[in-house]
């Protein structure tokens, strides 16, 4: 039975691009490494590379392998030996998914985060999903987590019973839930089914705005885009909730985080990169058709709450 990633706050890191290539942007490995070290040095438990925030669908196989390998070498060289790295996949075919997982393992990742195949969402049955994930897990050299993100999967739904069935597979060790269905979050995180106990199956939320309530029902943590710019703040809320101390402070912090998460929800990858640039100074392009950058007017809608979190982050430093 595969072990899940350790509990805590993870960051779905953006992929940093520069304008060096003539026809497209180039992966900026130097900035990628610096950002990763900043996160690890400020309490982040692990990184998700090449997820939806990482614009994974816009990278070649060679770029994927090179990025994972570089981050593994960067972390090892800085003293973060065996630092948790989760590699995302967003392919529809079983064989293509397994190939990406094989390459991710060879490059240094320890887990795979496998997005549900939603191209034919209106025709996909729960049994089809069970068989698809079972086949991937059978052949994957990495333990895998189920990535449930309806917004990028044609609104594909995965039911609690499907998660329960898949949790019995020895190579499926958890899930990331990137949606607002708190009922499903609670059912998975608080399940007493033997295959879903916390040492076998870890459930993470992809939304920091529901971190506190999610942790109270047994959630393992969050894989959260806001933590890319405010790592100490998200880790602090996690610690307060896990210790069950000063819950009034935890509730107040959750309220500010929930307001700031609107930047991530409303502007996606572009919002995360803009926040990382303005807060931490790490510059990045996006890959077309995405365009990096927010107007001053658009950013101004979020500047107030971002400044609130700047103060929190500084006080925790």
Can you give a write-up of this model?
The protein is of the alpha/beta class and 317 residues long. An eight-stranded parallel barrel has the order 1-4-5-6-7-8-9-10, surrounded by six helices. The chain has a two-stranded antiparallel ribbon with strand order 2-3. Strand 8, helix 6 and strand 9 form a beta-alpha-beta unit.
Name its key features:
317 residues, alpha/beta, 8-stranded parallel beta barrel, two-stranded antiparallel sheet, 10 helices, globular
Q: Rg, please?
A: 18 Å
Average pLDDT taken over every residue: 95
> Order of SSEs, N→C?
EEEHEHEHEHEHEHEHEHHH
- Which of globular, elongated, flat, extended, rod-shaped describes the shape? globular
Distance between the termini: 39 Å
Which percent range fits the helix content? Answer: 40-55%
Number of H- or I-type helical stretches: 10
Sheet with most strands: 8 strands, parallel, barrel
Could you give the order of strands across the largest sheet? 1-4-5-6-7-8-9-10
Strand content: 5-15%
Pairing-aware structural class of the strands and helices?
Answer: alpha/beta
Extended strand count: 10
Low-confidence stretches: none
């Amino acid at each position: 039975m595969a072990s899940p990633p350790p509990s805590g706050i993870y960051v779905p890191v953006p992929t940093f691009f520069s304008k060096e290539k003539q026809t497209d942007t180039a992966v900026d490995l130097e900035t990628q490494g610096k950002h990763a070290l900043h996160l690890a040095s400020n309490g982040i438990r692990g990184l998700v590379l090449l997820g939806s925030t990482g614009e994974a669908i816009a990278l070649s196989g060679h770029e994927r392998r090179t990025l994972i390998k570089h981050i593994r070498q960067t972390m090892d060289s800085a003293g973060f030996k065996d630092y948790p790295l989760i590699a995302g996949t967003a392919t529809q075919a079983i064989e293509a998914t397994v190939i990406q997982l094989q390459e991710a393992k060879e490059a240094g990742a320890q887990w795979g985060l496998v997005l549900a195949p939603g191209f034919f969402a209106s025709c996909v049955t729960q049994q089809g999903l069970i068989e698809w994930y079972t086949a991937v897990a059978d052949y994957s050299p990495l333990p895998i987590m189920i990535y449930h993100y309806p917004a990028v999967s044609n609104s594909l739904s995965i039911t609690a019973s499907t998660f329960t069935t898949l949790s019995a597979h020895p190579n499926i060790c958890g899930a990331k839930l990137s949606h607002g269905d708190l009922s499903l979050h609670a059912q998975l995180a608080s399940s007493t089914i033997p295959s879903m106990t916390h040492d076998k199956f870890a459930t993470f939320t992809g939304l920091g705005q529901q971190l506190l309530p999610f942790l109270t029902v047994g959630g393992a943590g969050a894989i959260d885009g806001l933590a890319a710019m405010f790592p100490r703040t998200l880790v602090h809320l996690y610690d307060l909730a896990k210790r069950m101390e000063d819950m009034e402070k935890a509730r107040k912090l959750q309220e500010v985080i929930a307001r700031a998460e609107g930047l991530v929800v409303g502007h996606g990858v572009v919002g995360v990169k803009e926040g990382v640039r303005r807060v931490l100074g790490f510059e990045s392009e996006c890959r077309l058709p995405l365009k990096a950058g927010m107007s001053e007017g658009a950013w101004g809608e979020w500047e107030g709450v971002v400044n609130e979190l700047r103060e929190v982050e500084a006080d925790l430093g």
